[in-house]
């Protein structure tokens, strides 16, 4: 970690020079941005490179399948529970284990709580510094800098985060890699006291959510004028859905074009079969596209483009307001930050609806899977987008093959094309100023990349 | 104080656990100065720090360089999480071939095996857990301000667990993490291999509390580390033999078949390797 933007590394490539911005800050994991110039000193390409790989998916091979979901949760410190869930679901798909209804409800509640909590951390530590202090010196462009001048606004966000954290702690035990989701169901069903405490915690967030939403709306509107370069997102957006409406545990995957064209609906298995992996020599991340859809977007902005559905009235209303203001499709990078906030609201509404209609207390928690040689596939829509797991087990329940595909892999081709587009507009030579570095990183952060998750 | 955070070979979970400590963490930070933290701050260079919260083990040459730089420039380092303390899950097996990338691409080359942080950096405080709970990380940070004693838990997960163990036979053993075991009843009594008896406490038995086994993420307890005659495996055999009134050989056979799962988080730790050389898978 030696380079400041002023200590640029230059080397000859493609007849021109290459400049490295290292590391990319306020993202999860270690990565750099390489800017490649033509011999005429114009930007030819900019690319985000993942610098680390752990290979936890390979660790799963040869391991007793029942231990694998807890291991694979450690693929990602943000979306870990969703990897755990995807792993359990792939095993259930392989074994034919039928999930008890009560376990399904608990899983759904956990998904909404995890999603909101993960987004809240992104909003506090990534989004707020970018939106509130975009032009400030880097010494203050961080959460402590904002805390010192706008303590109440930050405290509001922390109150919401603390409520979701406590709710998760009460329902799932731990925040980051909870053990509660197990193959065949969940390890326990929360009791009535836990559920009513969770409901109270969430109820107390409403005013803070409203105030925070207004603040973000205002900041996004202001920043849009400063940062929008005219470069929009192009390609397809994708989300797990039920009847076209995004749902983390949706049994189908909907893919729609940003421009003209018909949506395609795929089963989990069809997504696996339709994927094209295209490893590159310059990054540990393996980009993934779909046949007929080279540039994909997955994650909050994709789901916002699909629309939230009428049962979450508040999120739906705010989503429609965004469409009125910015047009459909929502194809500007900064709207990804708005999508994070609207999904917190959606998750809040969904959790409350589930808690109001709760019936499974005391129900069956888990159906123990029984193994025969088989394979299974699953898709879960995590906070950062679609995760795919595919597993083959032998008759004694040992994993023979395992594949993980993470949101960053799907997003990578579109992110790099978008980054290149922005770089062509804002980079004017090999001297990269802090403002230009910040603009390039903003283009990357809109995709909320998580490197450990992407390379497993 | 100048405070820094750094992630080496890590999933980001330890950092997120720290960030989830929320306002008390940010309020504490705002009383000090962040010297570097690629999670929080846009500065790109490592600069001298009084305290570095370091997560992750060392898996490639870039991480090795970062660790050396931290060793050169920092006064006190807290090893946060079992990856930093023991090498963690990435060390559960020997290195496999990484994906093929171009040699000239400037990507960090992988090391032979993952190393715990203290192979390179002098560590002031060890905070195992995958991840350690947010409150524990915050308390550790405050302890280096001199306000508190550093947190230390010498008991086991069992000592914090509300479930009660009975001496009774178990028909069969399962690696299932949990399957709706009644509240109050020890998971071992239901044939679930919970590592609570040999794992360091401090997490308030988070997993058994929710009906799921402890997979040993906080590493061995003080008892296990106390003498050459103890190891996670041998102590587990003893405990299961006693609690199930089984024959020792039968339990040994069962547990040696799943040895890898006992040392998931700690296999690359030299102390553990030295103590249990004949037991660590792959030796
Ligand atoms: S100790 Fe666990 S939570 Fe922390 S970085 Fe390692 S795998 Fe992630
Ligand atoms: S073995 Fe596990 S379930 Fe039993 S008392 Fe110990 S920690 Fe609790
Ligand atoms: S119960 Fe065990 S696995 Fe769970 S958090 Fe505690 S030490 Fe880690």
Could you name the key traits of this structure?
heterodimer, A: 456 residues, alpha+beta, Cytochrome-c3 Hydrogenase, chain B, 5-stranded mixed sheet, 4-stranded antiparallel sheet, 16 strands, 46% helix, 18% strand, globular, disordered N terminus, B: 283 residues, alpha/beta, Rossmann fold, 2 domains, 5-stranded parallel sheet, two-stranded antiparallel ribbon, 12 helices, 31% helix, disordered C terminus, binds iron/sulfur cluster
Short description:
The complex is a heterodimer of chains A (456) and B (283). With 456 residues, chain A is an alpha+beta fold. Chain A has helices at residues 56-60, 68-72, 80-95, 101-132, 143-149, 151-172, 192-203, 206-227, 268-274, 300-306, 313-326, 335-356, 407-426, 434-445, 451-455, and strands spanning 10-13, 16-21, 31-37, 43-50, 181-182, 185-186, 236-242, 245-246, 252-257, 264-267, 275-277, 288-290, 296-298, 374-382, 385-393, 399-405.
Mean pLDDT of chain B: 89
Largest sheet of chain A: 5 strands, mixed
With strands numbered from the N-terminus, the spatial order across the biggest sheet of chain B is 2-1-3-5-7
Q: What letter string, H or E per element, gives the SSE order of chain B?
A: EHHEEEHEHEEHHHHHHHH
CATH superfamily of the largest domain in chain B: NADH:ubiquinone oxidoreductase-like, 20kDa subunit
């Amino acid at each position: 970690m030696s380079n400041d933007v002023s200590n640029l590394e230059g080397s000859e490539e493609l007849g021109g020079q290459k400049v490295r911005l290292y590391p990319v800050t306020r993202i999860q994991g270690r990565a750099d941005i390489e800017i490649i110039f033509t011999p005429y000193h114009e930007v030819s390409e900019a690319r985000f490179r993942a610098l680390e790989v752990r290979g936890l998916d390979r660790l799963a091979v040869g391991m007793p399948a029942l231990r694998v979901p807890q291991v694979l949760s450690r693929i990602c410190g943000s979306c870990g529970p969703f990897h755990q869930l995807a792993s359990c679901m792939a095993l259930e798909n392989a074994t034919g284990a039928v999930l008890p209804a009560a376990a399904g409800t608990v899983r759904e509640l956990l998904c909404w709580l995890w999603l909101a909590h993960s987004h809240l951390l992104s909003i506090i530590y990534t989004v707020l510094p970018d939106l509130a202090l975009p032009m400030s010196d880097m010494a203050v462009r961080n959460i402590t800098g904002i805390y010192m001048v706008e303590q109440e606004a930050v405290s509001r966000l922390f109150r919401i985060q603390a409520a979701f954290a406590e709710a998760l702690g009460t329902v799932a035990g731990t925040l980051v890699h909870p053990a509660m989701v197990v193959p065949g169901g969940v390890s326990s069903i929360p009791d009535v006291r836990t559920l009513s405490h969770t409901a109270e915690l969430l109820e107390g967030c409403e005013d803070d959510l409203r105030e925070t939403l207004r603040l973000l709306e205002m900041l996004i509107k202001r920043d849009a004028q400063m940062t929008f370069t005219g470069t929009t997102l192009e390609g397809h957006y994708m989300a797990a859905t039920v009847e076209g409406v995004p749902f983390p545990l949706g049994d189908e995957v909907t893919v729609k074009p940003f421009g003209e064209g018909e949506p395609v609906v795929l089963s989990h298995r069809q997504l696996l079969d339709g994927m094209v992996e295209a490893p590159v020599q310059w990054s540990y991340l393996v980009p993934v596209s779909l046949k007929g859809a080279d540039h994909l977007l997955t994650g909050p902005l994709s789901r916002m483009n699909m629309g939230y559905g009428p049962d979450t009235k508040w999120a739906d209303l705010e989503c429609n307001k965004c469409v009125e203001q910015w047009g459909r499709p929502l194809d500007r990078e900064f709207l990804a930050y708005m999508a994070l906030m609207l999904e917190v609201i959606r998750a809040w509404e969904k959790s409350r609806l589930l808690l109001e209609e709760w019936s499974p207390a005391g129900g069956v928690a888990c159906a123990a899977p029984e193994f025969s040689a088989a394979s299974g596939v699953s898709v879960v829509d995590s906070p950062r987008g679609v995760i795919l797991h595919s597993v083959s087990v032998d008759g004694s329940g040992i994993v023979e093959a395992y594949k993980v595909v993470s949101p960053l892999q799907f997003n990578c081709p579109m992110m790099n094309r978008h980054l290149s587009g922005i770089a062509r507009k804002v980079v004017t030579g090999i001297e990269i100023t802090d403002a230009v570095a910040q603009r390039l990183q903003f283009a990357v952060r809109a995709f909320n990349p998580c490197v450990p998750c992407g390379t497993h | 104080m100048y405070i820094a955070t750094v992630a080496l070979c890590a999933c980001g979970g330890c950092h997120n656990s720290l960030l989830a400590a929320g306002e008390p963490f940010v309020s504490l930070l705002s009383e000090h100065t962040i010297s570097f933290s690629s999670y929080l701050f846009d500065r790109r260079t490592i600069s001298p720090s009084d305290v570095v919260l370091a997560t992750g083990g060392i898996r490639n040459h870039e991480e090795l360089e970062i660790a050396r730089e931290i060793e050169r420039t920092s006064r006190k380092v807290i090893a946060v999480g079992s990856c930093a303390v023991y090498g963690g899950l990435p060390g559960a097996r020997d290195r496999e071939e990484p994906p093929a990338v171009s040699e000239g691409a400037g990507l960090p080359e992988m090391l032979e095996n993952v190393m715990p942080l203290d192979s390179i950096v002098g560590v002031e405080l060890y905070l195992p857990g995958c991840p350690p709970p947010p409150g524990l990380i915050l308390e550790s940070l405050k302890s280096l301000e001199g306000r508190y004693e550093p947190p230390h838990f010498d008991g086991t997960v069992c000592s914090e667990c509300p479930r009660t163990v009975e001496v009774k036979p178990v028909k069969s053993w399962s690696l299932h993490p949990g399957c709706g075991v009644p509240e109050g009843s020890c998971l071992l009594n239901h044939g679930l291999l919970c590592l609570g008896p040999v794992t360091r406490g401090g997490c308030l038995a988070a997993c058994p509390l929710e009906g799921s086994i402890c997979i040993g993420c906080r590493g061995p307890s003080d008892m296990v580390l106390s003498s050459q005659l103890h190891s996670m495996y041998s102590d587990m055999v003893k405990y299961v033999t006693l609690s199930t009134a089984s024959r020792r050989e039968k339990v040994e056979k069962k547990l040696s078949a799943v040895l890898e799962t006992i040392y998931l988080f700690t296999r690359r730790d030299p102390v553990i390797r030295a103590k249990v050389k004949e037991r660590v898978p792959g030796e």
